[in-house]
Amino acid sequence: MTDSSRHIACVGGIVHDPDGRLLLVRRANEPGRGLWSVPGGRVEPGEDERSAVVRELAEETGLSVRPGELAGVVVRGPYRIADYRCDLAPGSPVRPTAGDDADDARFVDLAGYDALPVVDGLTGVLREWGALPRI
């Protein structure tokens, strides 16, 4: 257990499309510039985590999501990241469009995931949470 008051509160969204592919973004800024990760970012003052997930995914991918259960929490340096399993909201576009802190966004299958340079620790955490691409 970590003391969250010493960390910057962040969120991430784990989204699979109807075919089981995982939504990833290529980070345009540090930390992890040029590497792939699940979309997410900082929780704004006065914002709850679920609202932050919805906002961050809309900003980074153009997709509307409904956050579900908390998949888990990771601490990376000064950041405490709460990752939520999310479903695409009814009426949301199915094709992501990169924006904000992302310079690319896409759904990837397992072979595509394995070919991408991802942020340190992502694969192990997603495997532990059963959240890697399903195909």
Please provide a written account of the structure.
With 135 residues, the chain is α+β, with helices and mostly antiparallel strands. The protein has one domain: Nucleoside Triphosphate Pyrophosphohydrolase (Alpha-Beta Complex). The protein is built from three helices and seven strands. The strands form two sheets. Strands 4-1-6-5 form a four-stranded mixed beta sheet, covered by helices on one side. Strands 3-2-7 form a three-stranded antiparallel beta sheet. β5 and β6 (79-88) form a beta hairpin. The mean pLDDT is 93.
Chart the SSEs and their pairings.
Elements: E1 8-15, E2 22-27, E3 36-37, E4 40-42, H1 49-61, E5 65-76, E6 79-88, E7 102-108, H2 110-115, H3 122-128
Parallel strand pairs: 1-6
Antiparallel strand pairs: 1-4, 2-3, 2-7, 5-6
Concise summary:
This protein has helices at 49-61, 110-115, 122-128, and strands at residues 8-15, 22-27, 36-37, 40-42, 65-76, 79-88, 102-108. The protein is built from three helices and seven strands; from the N terminus they run E-E-E-E-H-E-E-E-H-H.
